[in-house]
Amino acid sequence: MPEVTYFHDIQVGQRFPLTIKRLGINGEGIGYYKRTIVFVKGALPDEVIVAEVTATAPKYVNAKIHTLRKKSPQRVEPRDADYYGHVGGIELEHLSYPAQLAFKVDVIRQSLEKFKPRGYQHYKLRPTIGMAEPYEYRDKAQFQVRELNGHVAAGLYQEHSHQLVDLKTFSTQRPATMQVIRYVVALLEELKVPIYNEEQNSGIVKTLVVRESFSTGHLQLTFITNSRKLPHKRELLSRIHTKMPQITSIMQNLNQGRTSLIWGEETFNLAGDDYITETLSGLTFKLSARAFFQLNPAQTAKMYALAREALQLAPHESLVDAYCGVGTIGLSLADTASEVRGMDIVPAAIADAQENANLNHIDNAKYEVGKAEELLPQWLAAGFAPDALVVDPPRTGLDQALLHAILDSRPQKFVYISCNPSTLARDLVRLSEVYAVDYIQSIDMFPQTARVEAVVRLEKRNIYR
Questions:
Q1: CB atoms within 10 A of CB 221
Q2: Residue 392, pLDDT above cutoff 70
Q3: Is 324 an active-site residue?
Q4: Domains present along the chain, CATH in parentheses
Q5: Which biological processes are named by the entry's GO terms (predicted)?
Q6: Please, which of 167, 171, 337, 351 could form a disulfide with 319 given CB 3.0 to 4.6 Å?
Q7: 216, 358, 234, 224: which is closest to 289 by C-alpha?
């Protein structure tokens, strides 16, 4: 890799020829000009372009493609051509799917090279497990609603802006979720329901959220509103029921005023059930409007099977499920363990986890509200020593206090499920002092994006046995 300079005289608007060497962790093309790293959105490895600088920083510059002189054989036409490059969630749609899967292994490799955990050069990086059909997998749509040019629009914000892009179609979404969004948008316009105006902090309907159950085909629709009042509610509900009887749960969430948060604290039922149900790994889960659930159930089932295979739990062994959410991972493993204990900081998630355990007649799973880094030491002090641990942390990775607790307790079996290669590699720096990495199995939960999940099997080093 060329030596990179930290000072340059490159200016915004400047153009120069550039050969793209690889993709960065966010899916952007990377090249070097005058020993300065150049990030180019939409460019692919081995392409030769004329780059036009859009922003500069002391250590790098950002650029766009002005002219594509030599095209990569892996470049394909984006299926969402009207929206590609404007909204997130499809940033790799211009890259062939086999090349996307290879890139996701390379992203993990890049992160390991940056942080250099012990023995990283010898980690076994397995090929990414992809999907036979890498579209129409997202079972939930969460679209902002605004007025654009006199019409009601629903979609996503343009990247780095609050300019809404009206999404008539979106190829990674389940078709049913898009059908519901488009019908409700037309209905809101026809009935002249007041739409939220961010600048004036007026109007009512802010966001539409639609979730589909893969197993039942039922849908849940949630109106997120600026006030408790929902004009024309009776006709809205009647028309939706007549046109789309598969919507079995209609909820309203109250989120008043200007805020960057999507959800407010209060959710109430407008029609039908309070939840829909989903089946995963042979278990049934109740999904309330705000319940977190993986957006790609087909790949999630594969991921949990990988965790089961990696842990190889024996009937006498106990498992801790840190960051347990609604209990999906731990409950999917409960039949192989003597006891499962899970924790999460969200009380509603813990309530859902316990209810899901009851729903599936699982009586060896226990859930507590609290931080893993606080509860795990308490359990250890009370005499509970887990044989196995599974962690599925947020994108920020493991809390440092939890890292200490893991290194103190040193469970024999340990699986780390990661949604961010950078924080995974950072955490492995500490974990690799005690654990050896057996393998890293990447899995594509979000095709057409730069995101990658990974299941990491760690083995306690012999010196500590």
A1: 26
A2: yes
A3: no
A4: 14-70 (2.40.50.140), 103-132+292-460 (3.40.50.150), 140-280 (2.40.50.1070)
A5: rRNA base methylation
A6: 337
A7: 224
